[in-house]
Amino acid sequence: MDELKKELEHLGMTDKESRVYLAALELGPSPVQDLSHKAKVNRATTYVMIESLSARGLMSTFQKG
pTM of the full predicted structure? Predict the structure, then answer.
């Protein structure tokens, strides 16, 4: 996983973006709290990373309920 993370960073992702992205790939559709815990990134920062990844077309979001 570290090698993949390094490759994503080489492609322009920040450390936190790559951690959130890989956590999302591993967990699938999940609450932000689960993503932030898996990625070891602050929950508020995870929201920012999700917005950034969504703007690049690498992640999509939805609201449940």
Answer: 0.92
Give the whole-angstrom CA distance, residue 50 versus residue 35: 10
> Is the separation of the CB atoms in 20 and 51 below 8 Å?
no
Is-contact 49 43, C-beta < 8 A? no
Q: Which residue has the tokens 């992205």?
A: 21
Average pLDDT over residues 23-32: 97
pLDDT for 20 beyond 90:
yes
Q: Which residue has the tokens 């790939």?
A: 25
* Alpha helix (H) residue ranges in the chain: 2-10, 15-27, 32-39, 43-55
